[in-house]
Amino acid sequence: MIIQSKRIWINGRFSEAQLEIEKGIITRILEYGRKRTDKDYGNLRIVPGFIDIHTHGAYGFETNSADEEGLRRWLRGVPKEGVTSILPATVTDQEEVLLPALRNIRKVVETGYEGADILGIHLEGPYISKAYAGGQPDTHIAKPDIAQFDRLQKEAGNRIKIITMATEEDPDFALTRYCHKQGIVVSIGHSAADFRQCELALANGATSMTHVFNALTPIHHRKLGGSGAALRYQDVYGEIICDGNHVSVDTLQYFFRLKGSCRGIMITDSLALKGLPVGTCAKSGSYDVKLHADGSARIKGTQAFAGSTLRMIDGLKLLVEKAMVPFETALNSCTINPARLLREDNHLGRLMVNYDADLVVLHDDYTIAMTYIKGMEAF
């Protein structure tokens, strides 16, 4: 198959080109008009598929519910927002809930599915701080435990790729070092760690910070805190929720100006309420959560955020059009940067020969004309 456009994102700029795709892989990038095309997208923008490394669910499903059809429905649905790969994320809970949730993902992967690719699992909790639990239920918070982690990883079929934890709760950074040695991304989050504790955690193998500015110690001009550590250390990746609710558009601009184009990662942190009508209520962990008109998902009866209902394409638009983040930086945050964090950047995150043909075709108003996953039309 050959598709072409006058605006294909190649090497950090839009170029006139053709993409030749065979067996789900980009096999050649050709001069525009070189060959007869199967799809000519004219002047529409073609960019790499979006990768969401921190998302709990959508369309009435959340990872912890361990519902097979719900997971399949979620995977089929997210390509409509340009998402081609995800890491389903858990919520802090007891083992009796987490183990079936992990087995459910393993079963779906092993039996086959349609839609967005599952690159692995993001284990958010249960090793977090009670003081910074946020929307995570605090009744089942646990101390970092290598033996328990091994049980969870076994049920996941070794698919846990990221763990969010409060590393200051990890004695001698034992689990931090253990996961780092196995190539698992340790992300500091839901953490009461101060700047120096974060510095030590990073030295012991943590490489990322979870939803910066949310559930991390704040920045003060004499105490940088966890959020400040995410900005101070340039080689540390930082997730950030780009819905305009969790973090203001001015703060988003500030964050990406400091992190640059290579280390900021857009996430949705989406819950089961995503894709459902305003006013809908649903369970997230042990909390009842309500969907508000601004797209926020708040713990019922409070103003506290439990997560978001963000669509990735809306996050990209908000970054560029409202936060005034340069397009390349914004696009990198949901393509090549998460791929690099996961060490999947040898086949994902850019439009290049021998890379997966995961593509999003965009109108200028950011509506999606088509999403391809491994060269197949997914939306």
TrEMBL record:
What does UniProt list as catalytic? 269
Keywords, ordered alphabetically:
Carbohydrate metabolism, Hydrolase, Metal-binding
Q: Does the keyword Aminoacyl-tRNA synthetase apply?
A: no
Question: Would you say which domain of life the source belongs to?
Answer: Bacteria
Query: Recorded GO terms, molecular function?
Result: metal ion binding; N-acetylglucosamine-6-phosphate deacetylase activity
Task: Give yes or no: UniProt keyword Cell membrane.
Answer: no
Q: Where Zn(2+) is bound, by residue? A: 124, 190, 211
Q: List residues of the Amidohydrolase-related domain.
A: 46-375
Tell me which cofactor or cofactors this protein depends on: a divalent metal cation
Classification via NCBIfam families = nagA
The family line of this record is: Belongs to the metallo-dependent hydrolases superfamily. NagA family.
Name of this protein: N-acetylglucosamine-6-phosphate deacetylase
The species is Clostridium innocuum
